[in-house]
Amino acid sequence: MAHIDASHYSRDASVELSEALAKPASYRLLYFPVLSNGATGRDLLACGGVNWSHAAPADWETEKNKSPFQMVPLLYVTGENGKTATLAETMVIEHYLAKKFSLLGSNEYEESIIKSLHSSSAAVQNAFAVTVTWNTPEGKAGALGFFTSATLPIWIAAHERHLIDNGNNGHYVGDKLSLADIRTANTIEHLAAQPESATLMAIVNKSAPLTKLRDMVAKHPKLVQWRSGADYKGYFEGNRAFYANPAAFM
Fold first, then answer.
1. What DSSP string describes 201-213?
2. Contact criterion met (CB below 8 Å) for 47 and 222
3. SS3 for 58?
4. Could you give the CA distance from residue 182 to residue 116 in angstroms, rounded to a whole number?
5. CB–CB of 100/80 below 8 Å?
6. Global confidence as pTM
7. Which GO terms label this protein's molecular function in UniProt (predicted)?
8. What is the C-alpha to C-alpha distance for residues 118 and 73, in angstroms, rounded to an integer?
9. Residues near 93 by Cβ (< 8 Å), separated by ≥ 6?
C-alpha cells in the first residue's frame, strides 16, 4: 500500500522534474488492486525492463484529495537527479511510457496511428464501464445488449481492418509490439474478467485477427514473466471480485 501526496503540480521545480522524466532511475505505479486502467501501465513497465514497482492506495477515501484529479493511476518517476515527478491520467502515463520504451513506431506518422488505435481501445473499455458496469441492476441487461450488438461489433470490425491491412501478423504497425497492441490486448483481458465474460468473449473470440493480437502480446517474453507472477494473478482475481459487485467496494 502507498500513501498519496501529489495534489498539485510543482511549477517551481519544472526544470528539475523535466530532467527526472528525461532520465528516470525508477518508476512506481499507483492504482487499485485490479487490472482495469492500471493494466496497460503495468504491462508497459514490465516490457521496459526497468526498475519499477506497483502499489495500491493505502486509504483512498481519505487520500484521494491529494491526487491531482482525485483519480488513479498515478505514476511516480524518480530521476537520476533524485527528484520525483508525478504523472496523472491514464492516457498521459501510457503515452509517456510508450515513448520511453520505443513502442510508438518508427516515425511520427506511425506514432499517430498507434495513438489513434490506443485511444479507440481505451474508449471501448470506458464505454463498457459507463454503460454496463455502473448501470443499475435493472438497466444492465439492456445496456449489455446494446454494447454487444452495437459498440463492440463496431470496434471489432474497425480494428480487424487495421490488423488485416498490416498483414494480419498480430500487430497494428509493422512487425513490432506497440502501445496499441498492448492496450487492445488489455481491453480484451478486461472484458474476459467481467461477470458477463461468456457473452462478451463469445463475440471477441470470433475475430481471428484480434485473437491473434491478444496471443502475440501474451507471448512476449517479458509479459509472460510478469503475467505468470502472483501479483498479476492477484490483480486478475481482484478484477473478478470487484466487477461482480462494484457497489460493494464503494
1. HHHHTT-HHHHHH
2. yes
3. coil
4. 13
5. no
6. 0.94
7. glutathione transferase activity
8. 17
9. 29, 41, 73, 74, 75, 87
